[in-house]
Specification:
about 400 residues; alpha/beta; Aspartate Aminotransferase, domain 1; Aspartate Aminotransferase, domain 2; seven-stranded mixed β-sheet; about 45% helix; globular; acyltransferase; Aminotransferase_I/II_large; biotin biosynthesis; AONS_Proteobacteria; AON_synthase_class-II
Length: about 400
């Protein structure tokens, strides 16, 4: 009998082949050790860079007031929560943050989740099952897709930002399953494109067809609307139009965690049924204290959004003057479309050599042939940072043309 190969070795051999293939296709991902510094800076390998890759849109992640919140929370509550929210992990700080988030989003209640990824998994899994359908924008964040898959409902994807296509697909589903539940899920600000979903139109179609709309405000809260109340509020929509609102605390709010806001009944249902809520340890309470500080800052310091708007305008004007391949975005997410993964990676490396961290985004995060540089602006950048970046981009792209 032939000797069976050592299973771990055989597995390693298969995995190594897969990794090599990934590398050959320019899709290999590597981490680096990064130390965030104030002023949208980051230290990597002993060198300081201007960071154009973080989602810290309001420049709060390094704000001393958030650190003070953490420290005070730590003194009162310790480093760990010790249990899930339904056991003994739910602290007064968590509770206060939930109430503040409900008020901020104009909804009766909010429920904290450990991460946005877990919130999206939990929402879909708790609300729909085998007979139902989840309808999603083609460019939705991976966590929304994974939520639909975890729910076992039928996943139907509609064309990007296309309410008519959603309408047709909803109608087709309704015809087959008149009594089943239809859950429509969309990013508000699309994470890799920076454009905003047609929220009012989505809401109208959902209402007409008896479907339920959930909007993921991971990149909208803190950034869009007065006081940073989000793209849904900025579009004039409330709980009747968008009954399920999800937001994260690790991006514009510079902290960590996520939440769902909605009706009393919705939140009670999620507490009973969302497995990613029930079966996990509550985030440390001090994080809630830092998020509370961030929320207050977002309400009080509109200058951060004014500054962002100014930087966005300056970036776009300068990039247009150099004919850089801008995408249609008014948000701090300003991608440059490059197409091939190799090209995006080469440009990202060239910028890094000049002191700028700009992430290349490749498939499968974005569709094939749409690799890009994802440039993110924050209130902590200066006009000079932005002008310097555009100059470096233009030089590198000219050079790229010359050497082609
Ligand atoms: C980042 C992100 C998430 C996940 O949130 P985390 O708190 O980082 O897990 C969910 N949805 C969208 C659109 C995101 O960009």
């Amino acid at each position: 009998m032939p000797q069976a190969p050592d299973p771990s070795t055989a597995l390693d051999a298969e995995l190594a082949a897969d990794l090599a293939e990934r590398e050959a296709r320019g899709l290999y991902r590597r981490r680096r050790i990064v130390q965030p510094r104030p002023g949208a800076r980051a230290r990597v390998g002993g060198r300081e860079y201007v960071n154009f890759s973080s989602n810290d849109y309001l420049g709060l992640a390094c704000d001393p007031r958030l650190a003070d919140g953490l420290r005070e929370g730590l003194t009162e509550h310790g480093a760990g929560s010790g249990a899930a929210h339904l056991i003994t992990g739910h602290s007064a700080l968590h509770h206060e943050l939930e109430q503040a988030l409900a008020a901020f989003t104009g909804r009766p209640r909010a429920l904290l989740f450990s991460t946005g990824y877990m919130a999206n998994i939990g929402i879909a899994q708790a609300l729909v099952g085998r007979k139902d359908a989840v309808l999603e924008d083609r460019l939705n964040h991976a966590s929304l897709l994974d939520g639909a898959l975890a729910s076992r409902a039928k996943l139907i994807r509609y064309q990007h930002a296309d309410a008519d296509d959603l309408d047709r697909r909803l109608a087709a589903f309704r015809e087959k399953q008149p009594d089943a539940r239809g859950l429509v899920m969309s990013d508000s600000v699309f994470s890799m494109d920076g454009d905003i979903a047609p929220l009012a139109e989505l809401a109208t179609r959902c209402r007409a067809q008896g479907a339920c709309l959930m909007v993921d405000e991971a990149h909208g809260l803190g950034v869009c609307g007065p006081q940073g109340r989000g793209a849904v509020t900025a579009a004039g929509l409330g709980p009747d139009e968008v009954p399920i609102l999800m937001g994260t605390l690790g991006k514009a709010f510079g902290s960590f965690g996520a939440f769902v806001a909605g009706s009393e009944t919705l939140i009670e249902h999620l507490i009973q049924h969302a497995r990613s809520y029930v079966y996990t340890t509550a985030t440390p309470a001090p994080l809630a204290a830092s998020a509370l500080r961030a929320l207050a800052i977002s309400r009080e310091e509109d200058w951060r959004r004014d500054k962002l708007a100014e930087l966005i305008q300056a970036f776009r004007a300068a990039a247009e003057a150099h004919r850089l391949p801008l995408m249609a975005s008014d948000t701090p997410i300003q991608p440059l479309m490059l197409g091939e993964a190799d090209r995006a990676v080469a440009l990202s490396r060239a910028l890094e050599a000049q002191g700028y961290l700009v992430q290349a985004i490749r498939p499968p995060t974005v569709p094939d042939g749409t690799a890009r540089l994802r440039i993110t602006l924050t209130a902590a950048h200066s006009l000079d940072d932005v002008r310097g970046l555009v100059t470096a981009l233009a030089e590198n792209m000219d050079h790229e043309m010359d050497t082609r």
